[in-house]
Specification:
Layout lengths: L4 H9 L29 H8 L4 E5 L7 E4 H15 L4 H5 L15 H12 L10 H8 L30 H8 L2 H7 L7 E2 L4 E2 L11 H10 L3 E4 L1 H8 L6
Parallel strand pairs: 1-5
Antiparallel strand pairs: 1-2, 3-4
Helix pairs in contact: 1-3, 3-10, 5-6
């Protein structure tokens, strides 16, 4: 179940934006049960970064691992995905965080897809003598052209192996935000790698088993964070809601 776009927007209006980049590595050394990435957040630095709202949202409704994301980051991500899901024209899509995907001439099979759309509207026009660049310029949808997320080969993996769906990787994002003090105690290393037909994805340093949720949440509270359990918000952060 996803949150309604209006609900996400209302919660975003009252919150300062948070950029999810990691801080610079500390010059000092910190004793930990095992060696962690030196660029990983410490609890103190993450609390300072989050400012007046140290709230972390958690969910165990996914793949067996615990998801943990700062509240404001979850709301921002959910809002971006809601904007994409509610886009009805190419201009509206181009105004979202995923706008570049519909204009990428090198993304297969966008050219064929746009050509088919164009030929359905202009059945008498001959496109065979155009170069690839000329064809792209001719068939690329304008800002006022209607758009549907479902079935679009830039986003929908059911129609293209080269699609890049607007989904958050909860394991990776959780590990990006998890303080080193908690990661060193509860993080587990997974074997294998993340792969898609067209590309290989970055893997997290650690994942956090859902069966240890209570322990992890208590450890985070002990470091000064506020914990909110919200499966609906994490789902809206991870996936764009279905188009209506």
């Amino acid at each position: 179940m996803n949150l309604e776009p209006d609900s996400i927007q209302a919660r975003l209006m009252s919150m300062e934006m948070v950029k999810p980049q990691p801080p610079a590595a500390s010059q000092g050394t910190v004793e930990e049960p095992r060696q962690m990435d030196p660029n990983r957040w410490t609890a103190a630095r993450l609390l300072a970064h989050l400012g007046d709202d140290p709230t972390l949202v958690t969910s165990a409704a996914g793949t067996g691992n615990l998801a943990v994301v700062p509240l404001r980051v979850a709301l921002q991500g959910a809002g971006k995905r809601a904007a994409l899901a509610t886009a009805r024209t190419y201009g509206e899509v181009r105004a979202t965080a995923w706008g570049d995907q519909v204009d990428d001439m090198n993304r297969y099979p966008l050219l064929d897809y746009y050509r088919e759309l164009y030929e359905n509207k202009h059945p008498d026009e001959d496109l065979d003598d155009l170069t690839e660049e000329e064809l792209w310029d001719r068939v690329l949808p304008g800002d006022d052209e209607p758009f549907r997320l479902d079935g679009h080969p830039a986003f929908d993996t059911s129609v293209s192996d080269y699609a890049d769906p607007p989904e958050a990787d909860l394991d990776l994002d959780t590990d990006d935000w998890m303080p080193g003090e908690v990661a060193a105690r509860f993080g587990e290393v997974e074997d294998g790698y993340y792969a898609m037909p067209a590309q290989e994805w970055e893997r997290p340093e650690c994942v956090y088993p859902a069966e240890r949720r209570d322990e992890i949440e208590e450890a985070l509270k002990g470091l000064g964070f506020t914990i909110v359990r919200d499966d609906a918000l994490i789902s809206s952060y991870q996936y764009a809601p279905p188009q209506r």
